[in-house]
Amino acid sequence: MEKRPNVLLTGTPGVGKTTLGKELAGRTGLTYINVGELAKEGNLYEGYDEEYSCPILDEDRVVDELDDKMNEGGIIVDYHGCDFFPERWFHIVFVLRTDNSILYDRLEKRSYSGKKLQDNIQCEIFQTIYEEAMESYHKEIVHQLPSNMPEDLEMNLEQIMQWVEQWMKDNN
């Protein structure tokens, strides 16, 4: 059986992880997993955050749920956090980045407001997810990708597909 890489797509909500992940899965044949959807389907929560009006992810249950799949390989994981995933899972990590004015508009369209909107914009300004990824994984596998315009999506897809192709040649 051919070995296939595991890819993590992470970044602040609204940067385009889901769009990129679904398109990438379609073009590479890798399996796409949106952790938010997985948690919803399996009720993998440990409570509810009133301040942000959202459920609180049970990270341990998510890891247990995904572990066998991740060990098989060929998975694209999409989530806005990354520090709770085991380091051994991923062969490469892409942190999507979006200019604040563009991100603000995207989050507003999703009905983010108040503290939730401000905190996500600050998260992007301070590169919080990028720093989390750099602390959680080997620095050489963590890459930032711009995700502002439709052209960025196409360039990111090309770049990641080339990486996947090379990884498959090197590891099979």
From TrEMBL:
It catalyses: ATP + H2O = ADP + phosphate + H(+); AMP + ATP = 2 ADP. Pfam families: AAA_18. Gene3D superfamilies: P-loop containing nucleotide triphosphate hydrolases. ATP binds at G14, G16, K17, T18, T19, R110. The lineage of its organism: Eukaryota, Metazoa, Chordata, Craniata, Vertebrata. PANTHER family: ADENYLATE KINASE ISOENZYME 6, POS9-ACTIVATING FACTOR FAP7-RELATED. One of its GO terms (biological process) is ribosomal small subunit biogenesis. Monomer and homodimer. Interacts with small ribosomal subunit protein uS11. Not a structural component of 43S pre-ribosomes, but transiently interacts with them by binding to uS11. Interacts with COIL (via C-terminus). It comes from Scyliorhinus torazame. This is Adenylate kinase isoenzyme 6. GO terms for molecular function: AMP kinase activity; ATP binding; ATP hydrolysis activity. GO terms for cellular component: Cajal body; cytoplasm.
